[in-house]
Structure to design on (500 residues):
């Protein structure tokens, strides 16, 4: 089960102080069994330690070790002379992938945690049961302090404690770069556009941090946007020897130099918040990493996460403790989705451009085919005329006579009424009829322009108005005529009576 916020309390024996169970390095001055020449450090600073960035990265602190820094002058030939030779002393049973022995302080921490969650004796009455439930709630949430005794300091509950429920298991891609590639990741608290605009100044600043050695060249492998206005810059350093050959500085050596106190402060002034060596893990390291569940993660859940791994060869399960880590991974996923969408848009534009080019190319090919056929016909005509001139005055040869007979035979077959000529004539008549019917149908279709149609409508409207006005005048005239007739009819009898 890759995601589970209900981790059981059965992981009480795990180390509650490390974020990646047993992989944190204990206080020591000897180099670990898997030391990558990182600067000497003390305390817990494992792969997912408290003082590490929440991001999952390989090569950030694989063990501890002692080594000489820049300018020791102990290197020879292509041994990156400016960085010197790393002196290490390994001790079996210690380092990144070893399980640290449980100290009395850790045992007391577990006993105090159990007392705070089950049987506090702070008040000595029934309120201790309520306090126990409150401590359990804080432990499940992963924050707060658990008071259980007046004479003992309270227990500090963190999200790494084995009782915290807000935990899940995700998967991260394992790097496949070798140490010889020399790739080191620097995370800047600046936007990508600012990094790209000042990339040359950044390279010069990194070169000065490396001591300004003329035999060293800083190169940028890639620049990638990260959430929260951060930018990931991948660099490598090339060392040139006096005899003209060159090689990349190993990633672990360059990372060890960047982790020195004075160099790290200089990088922080440039805005670097995190640096890590991008190197692949050996099969033994991956096996040891998978065999030991992280701190506070139930071994059953860890085993199920290994079973559910979609690609064990490329992905590795990693714990996600708290909502902040879950939010960070969500932001990274959104950022990666945007990058994929941007790449898909670029590919789509390229495909569209290629389709246009293909259409143009097909048109040119068809044009060139027509030109080739026309030139072939012209060439054939020229050859015919040349052959006629060359054979002028010569008698017809046997092969020419045979060819003429074949041509006459073909001509007779074509001219036969029931053969090809009749069929060709029939096809030609059908084509003419179809063209005629098509022309007739085309003639019956009328198309009027929109502006012309508007003008015709306006003209007809004016004609209609004129006719309406003319009709009204005629009606008025008819009424006048009727009135005149009526007056005339009344005046006739009056005149008759007068004359009688």
């Amino acid at each position: 089960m890759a995601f589970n916020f209900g981790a059981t309390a059965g992981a009480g024996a795990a180390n509650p102080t490390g974020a990646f169970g047993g992989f944190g390095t204990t206080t020591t001055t000897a180099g670990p069994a898997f030391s990558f020449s990182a600067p000497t450090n003390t305390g817990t600073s494992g792969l997912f330690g408290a003082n590490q960035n929440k991001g999952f990265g390989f090569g950030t602190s694989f063990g501890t070790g002692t080594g000489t820094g820049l300018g020791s002058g102990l290197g020879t030939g292509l041994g990156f002379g400016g960085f010197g030779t790393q002196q290490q002393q390994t001790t079996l049973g210690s380092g990144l992938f070893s399980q640290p022995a449980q100290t009395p302080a850790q045992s007391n921490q577990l006993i105090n945690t159990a007392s705070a969650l089950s049987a506090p004796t702070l008040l000595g009455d029934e309120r201790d049961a309520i306090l126990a439930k409150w401590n359990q709630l804080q432990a499940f949430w992963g924050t707060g302090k658990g008071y259980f005794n007046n004479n003992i300091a309270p227990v500090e509950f963190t999200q790494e404690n084995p009782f915290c429920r807000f935990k899940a298991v995700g998967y991260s891609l394992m790097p496949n770069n070798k140490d010889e590639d020399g790739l080191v990741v620097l995370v800047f608290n600046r936007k990508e556009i600012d990094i790209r605009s000042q990339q040359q100044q950044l390279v010069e600043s990194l070169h000065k941090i490396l001591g300004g050695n003329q035999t060293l060249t800083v190169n940028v492998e890639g620049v990638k946007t990260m959430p929260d206005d951060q930018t990931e810059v991948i660099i490598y350093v090339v060392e040139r020897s006096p005899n003209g050959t060159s090689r990349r500085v190993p990633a672990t050596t360059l990372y060890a130099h960047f982790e020195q106190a004075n160099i790290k402060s200089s990088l922080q002034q440039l805005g670097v918040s995190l640096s890590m060596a991008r190197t692949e893990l050996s099969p033994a390291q991956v096996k040891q990493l998978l065999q030991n569940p992280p701190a506070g993660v139930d071994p059953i859940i860890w085993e199920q996460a290994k079973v559910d791994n979609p690609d064990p060869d490329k992905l590795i399960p990693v714990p996600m403790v708290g909502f902040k880590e879950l939010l960070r991974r969500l932001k990274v996923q959104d950022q990666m989705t945007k990058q994929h969408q941007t790449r898909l848009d670029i590919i789509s534009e390229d495909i569209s451009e290629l389709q246009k080019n293909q259409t143009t190319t097909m048109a040119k090919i068809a044009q060139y085919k027509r030109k080739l056929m026309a030139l072939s016909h012209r060439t054939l005509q020229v050859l015919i005329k040349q052959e006629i001139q060359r054979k002028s005055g010569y008698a017809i040869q046997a092969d020419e006579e045979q060819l003429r007979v074949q041509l006459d035979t073909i001509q007779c077959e074509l001219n036969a009424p029931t053969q090809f000529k009749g069929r060709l004539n029939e096809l030609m008549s059908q084509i003419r009829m179809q063209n005629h019917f098509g022309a007739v149908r085309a003639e019956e279709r009328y198309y009027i322009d929109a502006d012309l149609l508007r003008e015709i409508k306006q003209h007809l409207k004016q004609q209609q108005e004129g006719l309406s006005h003319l009709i009204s005048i005629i009606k008025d005239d008819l009424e006048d005529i009727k009135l005149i007739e009526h007056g005339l009819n009344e005046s006739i009898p009056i005149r008759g009576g007068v004359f009688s």
